[in-house]
Structure formats: C-alpha cells, structure tokens
Amino acid sequence: MGADRLQGKTALVTGGSRGIGRAIARRLGRDGATVAVGYARDAVAAEEVVAGIRADGGRAFALPAALGRHGDAVALWEAFDARIGEYAPAGGVDIIVNNAGIGRSSDLAGLTEEEFDEVFAVNVRAPFFIVKHGLERLRDGGRIINISSGLARLAMPEIMAYGATKGALDTFSLNLAQQLGPRGITVNSVAPGIIDTDLNAEFLGDPEARAWAASVAALGRVGAPEDIADIVAFIASDDARWMTGRVVDATGGSRL
C-alpha cells in the first residue's frame, strides 16, 4: 500500500499504546491517516506511538480512553472532539478500530462474577457504545474493524469467558454490517491467533511454549503485531470496499 492510501482519513485505534494496537496505529499513520491513539493508563507509551507516527511523517495524537465503566464511550468521544480540530478541521472519523481488550480470564472454576463483568465490559460493552456514540461522527464509506480472536472458534476452556467476549464481538460485527451497509460503511472482525506481544512475553519466553505456539499455526511461527496491522490496513483501505460482515482469520492457519 502507498503512503497516501489513507490520506485525508481519520482513524481511532483503542488500545493503541501497546502490542497489536500499537502496530495498527503505526501502520495506519504510515498509510496517511491521522490517528487518535487511545490508551487506558500508560500515557507515556501512547505518546511514544504518537512520536513514532510523526517521525514517519504522519499525524497523530494520544487520546485518554479508559474503558470498562459506564459512560466510558461518551468520555472517549468528548476527548476526541476536543482534539480532532487541531488535525482535521472538519472533525469526524473514517476508521474505528476497536482493539482494546482484556486478554485473559480465569477458567470456569476460578471465574468470579466481578471478573466476568469486567472482561465483558471492556471487550464487548465498550466497543458497542463506542460505535453507538460514534455513528454521528463516522462518515459514510467508513470502516469499523473489531479485533476479535481465533478463540471465538477454537476451544480453550481455561479462558472461555475471554473467548465468549470475542464471539459476541463477531456477532456485533455481523449485525452492524447489515445495519450500516446502506451508508457504505463496512464492518469486519479480525481474529488473531497467538501474537508475540508484551501480554504474551512471559508465556513465549519459555522455549518449549514458543515452539508449541509456532507448531499450532500452519505457517509454522508465532505471529507478530505487524502481521495483524497489515491485515487491518487492507480492510481500512478502499481495496476492501466490497467485504463486510466477515471474520478474517489472522491466526496463521491455527489448528486447521
């Protein structure tokens, strides 16, 4: 893709300060989009992402976006509105990437109601209301990209609540695609497998665990954040204009 593929577009990436979100924000910035880098707690990391995008010649700003509480989506969009005019006087947004999420949960025996509520609040409720309150800002022909997981289709009982949130997110994508199609807005899920991020650093630091994770994928290696970011960049571009309501498998062919 060319550096100007998303020129004139504005993107919001939640959870953009680390891991997959960081790679997505950097890639969309390189493709020409102005990127709002959402973060929950680590403002320093978010500003590092912003600095990296700017160093590549792009435009970006950090956006505080703590999720999981009632009113979080309204607060996010209020913060967005307060900053976007500095970069795009017309305001609005073209690409919403719902990436932020809690990556793990306890097994059925250990799962508490509080943990269940928290993982669903961040992984499902937040994207739902980010879209609900963002629709008045999302331009026709826009993109909504929800970061799901291969665990929406693969059994892993030890973190089943997490997997259930991603299944719900895929259903959300499907219904949004139907509802927003008349506006030319596409909605898709991207479902990564095991990705080499700081979240998985301890697990993948064990050579045996890394070897197992690589063996699960048909392509024979552990995924990198950039593998997911490049897929997201394609979906965000006009090249993917005729694809909506889909779950894009980004697991490297895990457990085929």
Automatic annotation (TrEMBL):
PROSITE patterns, A to Z: ADH_SHORT
Keyword flag Oxidoreductase: yes
Keywords: Oxidoreductase
Record carries keyword RNA-binding: no
GO molecular function terms attached to this record: oxidoreductase activity
Location of the Ketoreductase domain: 9-197
Cited Pfam families: adh_short_C2
PANTHER family: OXIDOREDUCTASE, SHORT-CHAIN DEHYDROGENASE/REDUCTASE FAMILY (AFU_ORTHOLOGUE AFUA_5G02870), SHORT-CHAIN DEHYDROGENASE_REDUCTASE FAMILY PROTEIN
Family affiliation: Belongs to the short-chain dehydrogenases/reductases (SDR) family.
Protein name as catalogued: SDR family oxidoreductase
